[in-house]
Amino acid sequence: MGHQQQQPGKSSEKDLYRDTWVRYLGYANEVGEAFRALVPKAVVWASYGVATAYVTADAADKGKKAANSYKESPDQTAQVAVAVVDTFVWQALASVAIPGFTINRLCAASLYLMGRVTRWPLPVRKWATTAVGLSAIPIIITPIDGSVDWMLDSSLRKLYSKSH
């Protein structure tokens, strides 16, 4: 159900932001993108607000956990910063930016193609586009999560390990 890498300050207890239904708030913007053809743009932007609030709350939670875990450590501030930055960047990419873009483009392409190859009326094409977008969400999650892990492991996370 998303990012599984052990984060600084993360214990083996159930994580509200990763191991419960709350995780799905991170995908609110994908649902918004899937419905873009049917709803006002303000609804789509509101879905990004929900997803961004989730990302921010998870990053704050991981920072608080790191602060508690490294209470007596001289590098507590650095550990908290690593936990917050890593969580925020990972979640922003894996839960908001990349899947939102992916669903947006998939829906735009499907609406365009249906207009070219079918004689369906526009409302039917819009509903079909929404169905395509919604059905793609569970398919894209795992590859995007893995790609973001690889991307951060190959870049940003190398900086963390060098500083400690």
Automatic annotation (TrEMBL):
Could you say which protein family the record assigns here?
Belongs to the MTFP1 family.
Q: Name one GO biological process term.
A: mitochondrial fission
Cellular component annotations (GO), alphabetically ordered? mitochondrion
The molecule here is called Mitochondrial fission process protein 1
Q: Which domain of life is it from?
A: Eukaryota
Pfam families named in the record: MTP18
Record gene name: mtfp1.L
Cross-referenced InterPro entries, in alphabetical order? Mitochondrial_18_kDa_protein (IPR019560)
Organism of derivation: Xenopus laevis
